[in-house]
Structures are given as C-alpha cells and as structure tokens.
Write a structure and sequence with these properties.
57% helix; Rossmann fold; 11 helices; 221 residues; TIR domain-containing protein; NAD; signal; globular; alpha/beta; Toll_tir_struct_dom_sf; binds 2-acetamido-2-deoxy-beta-D-glucopyranose
C-alpha cells in the first residue's frame, strides 16, 4: 500500500519528456553521417537521450531555435569533426553556439576527430583550409561571421577530445559511449543502484531512477 503514491509519482513523472543528455553535432554530407547515425543508435541503446538534428527537428520548425533549445537541455555536446564539417555553415553556427553555452552554462563539449587529424582542424589546413578560403570569399561583407567560426574552431580544438586513429568504428563508438556514461555518471547524482531497477522497465523509467534531478528540474518550469 505504501508503494502506491510512489508508483503514481513515477507514472506521472515518466510522462514528462526527458531532457537530452547529449547533443550530436556532425556533418551529414560525408562519411561521418553514417558514423553519427551509428553513434546515435549506440547512445540510445545505452539509455542516453541524444539529440541529432535530422531526428529532433520537426518539418518547418526554425532550425536555429530548435538547435538552441536542444542545446539548452543537453549536458554534453559531441562535435564530430570530419573532412567536410567546416564547409557547412550550419555546422559552424552550431559550433559557435556550443562554445558559447560551454562558457556560459557549463555545457560539456567533447570534440571527436573522425578521419581527420586534429592538427588539420586546429591549423585549418587541407579541407579545413579550403572551406575557410571559400567562406572568406563568400562572406566578404560579413567578416565577423568568419571570425566567429574561426574562434569557435580554435576553442573546440583546445579541448580534450577523442581521435579515431586506426581503430574500428565499432570499437571507437564503444569508447565514446563509455566516456559519455562516465561523464553523465559523475555529473548526476544517483538514488538507486543499477541492480535495483528492473531491466524490463521502459528506458524512460529507468533513466528517471538514475537521473531523478534532471526531471525534477524540468518540472519546475
Ligand atoms: C529563426 O530564428 C532566428 C532567431 O529568432 C531568426 O534570427 C531567424 O531569422 C529565423 N529563421 C527563419 C528561417 O525563420
Ligand atoms: C537557451 O539559453 C540561452 C541562454 O540561457 C537563452 O538566451 C536562449 O533564449 C535559450 N534558447 C532557447 C531556444 O530556449
Ligand atoms: C554508469 O552508470 C550506469 C548505471 O549505474 C552503469 O551501468 C554504467 O556501467 C556506468 N558507466 C560508467 C562508464 O561508469
């Protein structure tokens, strides 16, 4: 009987849409698109709420606003730097917002170097150099934008990141998921040890048991 109010509360809370834990920033128009897809699936499988713009934005929704909202709800952002990341202004704008949130609201940012050398990103050589040469030409009248992108790239590459090297993608994805779990475990208090939450509970409920405070915070709004 004493359990009844508790269960009611759980049912009530489970209907609240969960916050995203992770925001994935990536370029869809190169091989990192399928990598990001696999990473996304692996994170979801591990019970980690993840935002990916091609899944999380409704048709016709303002992208800038939707991305801003998703970032505001995320604890960790992962930036998948791939060959063509810098040729997309959407990606670069996302990166600027991520770095802003990192400074102002403590968002954790983890760069992932997928088939690119971190030095190439940092020094803007090869594809990154070509991309920026094009942006400089195209945004001659809006120099501040290119400057902002350059600064965001510089800041991102100064952070501790993860490099694919010659690992298999599968192995790399496992490493990334582990790292995210570790970060989330260390930033979120837990009330229940893993064993006490039955694995047949829906992910929402399990997550709630692990991360009650993220829901509590959301309920306050
Ligand atoms: C989306 O929202 C931003 C910020 O409010 C605004 O600057 C931009 O013009 C909007 N974009 C579109 C396509 O409506
Ligand atoms: C996200 O948070 C920032 C800073 O707190 C705020 O200025 C912005 O309006 C928020 N964006 C959305 C879409 O909620
Ligand atoms: C994080 O916590 C979950 C749930 O308690 C546990 O299953 C997982 O092994 C932990 N992961 C790491 C990397 O510490």
């Amino acid at each position: 009987m004493a359990l009844y109010p508790f269960i009611t509360l759980l049912v009530l809370l489970s209907s609240v849409p969960p916050n995203d834990d992770v925001f994935l920033s990536f370029r869809d128009k190169d091989s990192s698109g399928s990598f990001a897809g696999h990473l996304y699936k692996a994170l979801i499988r591990a019970g980690i709420h993840t935002f990916k713009y091609d899944k999380g934005i409704r048709r016709g929704e303002n992208m800038t606003l939707a991305v801003g909202r998703a970032l505001n709800k995320s604890k960790i952002s992962m930036i998948v730097f791939s060959e063509n990341y810098a040729s997309s202004t959407r990606c670069l704008n996302e990166l600027v917002t991520i770095m802003e949130r990192r400074r102002t609201s403590g968002l954790v940012a983890i760069p992932i170097f997928y088939k690119v050398d971190p030095a190439e990103v940092e020094d803007r050589t090869k594809r990154y150099g070509e991309a920026f040469a094009k942006h400089e030409e195209r945004f001659k009248e809006q120099v501040y934008r290119v400057k902002q992108w350059r600064a965001a790239l510089k800041e991102a590459t100064s952070l501790a990141g993860m490099v694919l090297h010659d690992r298999s993608e599968t192995e790399f994805i496992q490493m990334v998921v582990k790292k995210v779990e570790k970060r989330l475990n260390s930033t979120l208090p837990k009330v229940l040890p893993a064993q006490s939450v039955p694995s047949y509970w829906p992910i929402n409920l399990r997550n709630l048991a692990y991360h009650p405070f993220s829901v509590a915070r959301e309920l306050k709004y």
